[in-house]
Amino acid sequence: MSVLRHWHPVCLSSRLGRRPVMAQVEGHEIVLFRTATGQIGALDNSCVHRRMRLSCGKVAGEHLVCPYHGWTFNYTGAGESPGTPKMTAQAPAYDVREEWNYLWIRQAGSNSPFPDLSVDGFAPVRPLEHTIDAPLEVVLDNFTEAKHVASVHSYFGYDLDRMAEVQSHVEPSEFEVRVRNTGPQRSIPFPLRWAYAIKTGDTFHWEWVTRFAPVHVTYDEFWTDPQSGQQRGVHARIRIFFYALDDHRTRLVTFAAFKLPFSPVVNGFFLMFRDIARWLVGWEMSRDADMLAQLADKSPGIEGMKLSRFDRLLALHRDRIERVYRE
Ligand code: FES
Ligand SMILES: [Fe+2]
Fold it and tell me: Considering only CA atoms, which residue is closest to atom 3 of ligand 1?
């Protein structure tokens, strides 16, 4: 069974205009199109007639027109041949949903539930998109591990010298893996410390839960005063969806939201903060992408690696990717 039975975020809503757009999941191509009345269709990108890419075609009224011999398809995939009008065919179609300014697809007929995107009072920012030149498993390894943040990231996270103080608690269950990390926030530049209302040495809580249908991680990032234990500063709730474009490239779609600790008046300042915070999340993620691109061996296998206490997740995730996601 295809992973496409789960919902996948495949295209920014605003990217789908009058022209069809091609999306890709695990090497499988899908064409998305928007008809004149605003219906959105998602079909296999290979024309049922002689396998032309439908994404090279165009939209005319309520139909997508194949560029090769002019078959037409409506948004449900019902197709007709122009030369043989009695000849019809059904193109494999997908369910489409628009959430958070993103288009999500799932194989028609599947009952896989839509992932939880709730924000509970956090203020959302526009989605972020990254493509990383490494397979899904290897990318997920990086995004569910606290050790690299000290060396790879620029601002947030722990100090390499104080890594031994970082507590990492892993709680696996049948369908998800929960991790809680706490440790001292490393030194960060004054403007960021100020904007986030935190101090160097505050306890940085980095907690996440990884789910596999589809593969996504929900992160909670917040700080507490190491003396009183009181929470202070910004609280971020970040959800990243991961899927393979093909065997070598992984797509990441990030939905971030932030909660501010200030008075309502000061929180009004948030409009500006929001773009800075979004930029920072994107920046830190591009650091991951650059690092992963340089791996000497990107194969997802873990045999022969010298793994440490932070690396227990590699096997837990591979098991769930096979069993829950790919099945
Ligand atoms: S391949 Fe599409 S109409 Fe012939
Ligand atoms: Fe990272």
Answer: 69
